[in-house]
Amino acid sequence: MGVTVHPLSNVLGAEIRGVDLAERLDDGTIREIHDAWMEHLVLLIRGQTIDDPQLVAFSSRFGELDGAPIGATPSGKVSTREYNEITVISNVVENGRPIGGLGNAESDWHTDMSSYEEPPAASMLYSLEIPSAGGDTSFCNMYRAYETLPDHVKIRVRDLKAIHDATLTSAGGLRHGFESVTDVTKTPGARHPILRTHPVTGRTALFLGRRVNAYVPGLSVEESEALLDTLWGRATAPENTWTHTWRIGDLVMWDNRCAMHRRDGFDDSVRRIMHRTQLKGDRPYYAPPEAAPTAA
Ligand code: OGA
Ligand code: MN
Predict the structure, then answer these.
(1) Residue 156, class by beta-carbon neighbours within 10 Å (0-12 exposed, 13-18 middle, 19+ buried)?
(2) Distance of alpha carbon 135 from the chain centroid
(3) Distance (Å, rounded) from C-alpha 70 to C-alpha 262?
């Protein structure tokens, strides 16, 4: 049975059918999935029944895996005891301790771990238990966010960087070991170019990371806030987003280099358990293509 690719919206996203992730897929199938991923930014593979080693085995066909992030909960890491590559995303509390990160709260638009100098290239999230309502995950297309900017804004941002806050989790909680930011010019976290060349596709994307505590060095705080509001408004405009409603056994894989995501909150009395892997990434860079608009 061959792999088939079914676009999910005209913004981004495609469903891959015809694969069983519990089996080792041949190289040709992995290449087809990879190509569809690069084209559609986010892939959905439904109806899977896989364990942690199978999730790790499938994920690592696309690159080297990163360990689970540190500091998402007061207890530190949220990897499972057995697999350092698996991050648990859950609101479940066992014996007084959260088994995973993010809890039940809404998480605002973000790119995973963009405060790192070399943020993960991609994340793969597999659903084990989901609430009957809430907890949907949305994605936005950062290529299109760039492409639809007016030329004068494209030109303005081409040599600018932004600071990507390291102090807050994507659910807005203070990370273990950090203090609250009071002056955004001093936000701790990596400085990345606002325009990012995708290392595989060569396309230009906006790279914003997260809005809270962001700052564009070289601008006044007022100018930085106004510019960031413009860019974020474009990136997260409803017509630039697609929302996934989960079923058990869904694997969703997203490319952090060209898509951001957010999650709806949900009722904390119901359980949601997801296991995540992430692929190592490179340092973001911008290499202007010939066709990029220039000032004169
Ligand atoms: C993540 C994340 C969204 C979700 O794992 O990085 O943002 O739907 N998860 O749980
Ligand atoms: Mn995330």
Answers:
(1) middle
(2) 16
(3) 20
Q: Which of 79, 170, 251, 254 to mutate to test the pocket of ligand 1 (most atoms within 8 A of CB)?
A: 170
pLDDT digits (tens, 9 = 90+) for 127-149: 999 999 999 999 999 999 999 99
How far does the chain reach from its first CA to its final CA, in angstroms? 54
Write the CB contacts of 222 (distance below 8 Å, at least 6 apart in sequence): none
**What ligand has the least distance to the C-alpha of 245?**
1
Given a contact cutoff of 8 angstroms between Cβ atoms, the answer to whether 265 and 64 are in contact is no
Tell me if 213 sits within 8 A of 181, measured CB to CB: yes
Rounded-to-integer distance, Cα 62 and Cα 217, Å: 34
Residues with CB under 5 Å of ion ligand 2 are 112, 170
Ligand nearest to the Cα of 102, by number: 1
For ligand 1, is residue 275 a contact (CB within 6 Å)? no
The string of pLDDT tens digits covering residues 210-237 is 999 999 999 999 999 999 999 999 999 9
Determine the residue type at 22.
Answer: A
Instruction: Judge if the beta carbon of residue 123 lies within 6 A of ligand 1.
Output: yes
- Return the sign of the alpha-carbon dihedral for residues 242, 246, 251, 257: positive
3-state secondary structure of 230: helix
Nearest 10 degrees: Cα torsion 123, 126, 132, 137: 10
pTM beyond 0.90: the answer is yes
Set out the domains of the chain in order of their start, with CATH numbers.
4-279 (3.60.130.10)
Closest ligand to Cα 100? 1
Q: How crowded is residue 171: how many other Cβ atoms within 10 Å of its Cβ?
A: 17
